[in-house]
Automatic annotation (TrEMBL):
GO terms for molecular function: proton transmembrane transporter activity. The keyword Transmembrane helix applies. Gene3D superfamilies: lithium bound rotor ring of v- atpase (1.20.120.610). It comes from the Archaea. GO terms for cellular component: proton-transporting two-sector ATPase complex, proton-transporting domain. SUPFAM superfamilies: F1F0 ATP synthase subunit C (SSF81333). InterPro entries: F/V-ATP_Csub_sf. This is Uncharacterized protein. The chain crosses the membrane at residues 23-48, 60-80, 100-123. It comes from Thermosphaera aggregans (strain DSM 11486 / M11TL). Keywords: Membrane, Transmembrane, Transmembrane helix.
């Protein structure tokens, strides 16, 4: 997200009328933060209430690994989406905003990695038990 916002600051210095488009495109990579929050809350609500005060080591390691895989999926998705959005932001002045919709569509393709990350993390918890 910081990369898209950095490019957005340069674009706004050149063409301030693109503020709405820049703000929208710079904010898109933040959605993965919400996916990560949902994963964290889900894991805490499902596995934090330990009934007898102990957790099997294998289950704890599986949850740690699952959490790391979810984190990695969200981080890669956010990074890649930030690059896509930054490229689209850079083209806004040249196209007079006409590239906005196309950039959002391309950013949605990268968003799929984040969505799959949250889905696989939640599905993985059902396998752990």
């Amino acid at each position: 997200m910081w990369y898209a916002a950095s490019v957005g600051a340069s674009v706004l210095a050149e063409e301030p009328t693109q503020f709405r488009n820049v703000l929208t495109l710079a904010a898109l990579p933040m959605t993965q933060t919400f996916y990560g929050l949902i994963q964290m809350i889900y894991l805490i609500l499902i596995y934090a209430p330990i009934r007898d005060g102990t957790v099997e080591l294998s289950k704890a390691l599986a949850l740690l690994g699952l959490g790391f895989v979810g984190f990695l999926a969200e981080a890669i998705s956010a990074w890649a989406q930030g690059v896509v959005c930054a490229s689209g932001i850079a083209e806004l002045p040249r196209t007079k905003g006409a590239s906005f919709v196309n950039t959002v569509i391309l950013a949605a393709y990268v968003e799929l990695w984040g969505i799959l990350g949250i889905v696989f993390t939640i599905l993985g918890t059902t396998l752990i038990g």
